[in-house]
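To illustrate the input format used throughout this study, we show a single complete record. The first block contains the structure-token representation of the backbone; no residue identities are included at this stage. The design step must infer an amino acid for every position from geometry alone.
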């Protein structure tokens, strides 16, 4: 999840997690 946050802003990260539950597991 750390790398994901660095790649995109917190706002986008939150949206990605909400829209993509699979990404959170990965």
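Output of the design step:
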């Amino acid at each position: 999840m750390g790398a994901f946050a660095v790649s995109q802003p917190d706002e986008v990260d939150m949206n990605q997690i909400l829209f993509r539950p699979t990404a959170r597991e990965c």
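Structural context for interpreting the output: Residues 1-26 form one domain. The chain has three helices and no strands.
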